[in-house]
């Protein structure tokens, strides 16, 4: 089975621009979560989608948004980029949503640099 | 509120020796899952091991074992026979089953492990 894939792997943008990141979950997985990882803040939860519905959201401004398609693929969008948005963005998928024992499997991440 | 604490920012271990990475957590939910992930310098998070709050036995997965002490809210990762490829960041994580949490997993700050030849 193919793992979680994320595109692009690397991205350089300038302040004020917007960016869209893509995540394809493991086949059969319906839940997709997004995380932001920075040296200062560590791993922070952005949001989670299940069956095209956002089920949970972290404490991020409205510039961060996402969506999930009927094939479970997910995209996240960041508008009006700021320098502080430079980070590794990780996507994780799991089969269902809400069970304590459900393991999340992560993709390789997208490294975003905002200049 | 959930909280994961990893008190060891960095650790060194001699190759072939065992090492314990500490993790304590805080939750009021009686049902929860604890996970350990490894993140090499490439950035990908690799799932290592899982322990459920109701599991009677400590989880083991190859060279990884989890020392679960529920009363102390502790879930330490033990790596036996360390290898050079074990050098990485290690994250402890927890998921609660409360309905408002859904698939939200909280991660600790991580421990950087360096294996010395």
Brief account:
Chain A is mostly beta strands. Chain A has no helices and eleven strands. Chain A is globular, with a radius of gyration of 13 Å.
Question: What keyword list fits this structure?
Answer:
heterodimer; A: 115 residues; mainly beta; seven-stranded mixed β-sheet; four-stranded antiparallel β-sheet; 11 strands; 52% strand; B: mainly beta; 12 strands
Tell the overall outline of chain A. Answer: globular
Task: Report the C-alpha radius of gyration of chain A, rounded.
Answer: 13 Å
The largest sheet of chain B is: 6 strands, mixed
Bulk shape of chain B: globular
Quaternary status: heterodimer
Q: Unreliable stretches of chain B, pLDDT < 50, 5 or more residues? A: none
Question: Could you tell me the radius of gyration of chain B in angstroms?
Answer: 14 Å
Count, helices of chain B: 0
Task: Tell me the span between the first and last alpha carbons of chain B.
Answer: 41 Å
Based on DSSP secondary structure assignment, what is the total number of beta strands of chain A? Answer: 11
Task: Give the chain pair forming the largest contact, with residue counts.
Answer: A-B, 29 and 30 residues
Tell me the series of helices and strands of chain A, N- to C-terminal. Answer: EEEEEEEEEEE
